[in-house]
C-alpha cells in the first residue's frame, strides 16, 4: 500500500522553487516585494527572492494549523503586522508552502487588497478544495504533505517563551 502523504525533500524543494520562479518570470510578473506567510512561506519566499532577484521581503505571521490536519476555526494574524505604508502601490507576490483550505491566503490577500497595485500568490502545493486559486503553483495534491522543514519534531517544545525539556 502506498503512503497517503506527499513527500517533499530539500532537493526536490530546490527544483520546485526554481520552477515556481520560472512560472512567475514567464508570466511577466515583476513583483516589487515578496510577502511570506510564516512559517512555511519563509522558505518559499527566500528561494523565490534569490531566483527572481527581489531583495524586498516582508513576513506576515498567521496561525492556523495546530497539528496534522488540525486547525483553528479561523486563521489569526499575529504581530508584527506589516506596515501598510510599506505595501502602498506595490506589486506583491504572496509566498506560502501550501494552499490547503485557502483561508490563510485569503486573509493575507484581503489584507493587501486595498493597499497594493497587484497581489498574486505563489505556492509549492495547492489542494483541490482551496478557496483561493493561486496564480503560480508547482504541484496539485489532495494528500497531506511532509515538508522537509516540519517533518521532524522540534528539538525543544516551546510554550510561549518558556522552554520545556
From TrEMBL:
Keywords: Glycosyltransferase, Transferase. InterPro entries: PRTase-like (IPR029057), PRTase_dom (IPR000836). The keyword RNA-binding does not apply. It comes from the Bacteria. One of its GO terms (molecular function) is glycosyltransferase activity. Residues 11-151 form the Phosphoribosyltransferase domain. The keyword Glycosyltransferase applies. This is Phosphoribosyltransferase domain-containing protein. It comes from Kutzneria buriramensis.
Amino acid at each position: 500500500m502506498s503512503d497517503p502523504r506527499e513527500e517533499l525533500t530539500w532537493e526536490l524543494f530546490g527544483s520546485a522553487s526554481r520552477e515556481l520562479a520560472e512560472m512567475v518570470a514567464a508570466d511577466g510578473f515583476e513583483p516589487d516585494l515578496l510577502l511570506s506567510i510564516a512559517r512555511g512561506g519563509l522558505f518559499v519566499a527566500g528561494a523565490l527572492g534569490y531566483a527572481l532577484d527581489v531583495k524586498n521581503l516582508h513576513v506576515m505571521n498567521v496561525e492556523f494549523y495546530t497539528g496534522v490536519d488540525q486547525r483553528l476555526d479561523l486563521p489569526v494574524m499575529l504581530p508584527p503586522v506589516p506596515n501598510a505604508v510599506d505595501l502602498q502601490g506595490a506589486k506583491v507576490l504572496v509566498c506560502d508552502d501550501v494552499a490547503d483550505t485557502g483561508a490563510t491566503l485569503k486573509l493575507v490577500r484581503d489584507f493587501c487588497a486595498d493597499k497594493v497595485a497587484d497581489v498574486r500568490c505563489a505556492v509549492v502545493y495547492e489542494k483541490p478544495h482551496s478557496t483561493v486559486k493561486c496564480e503560480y503553483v508547482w504541484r496539485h495534491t489532495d494528500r497531506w504533505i511532509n515538508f522537509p522543514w516540519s517533518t521532524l519534531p522540534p528539538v525543544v517544545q516551546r510554550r510561549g517563551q518558556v522552554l520545556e525539556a
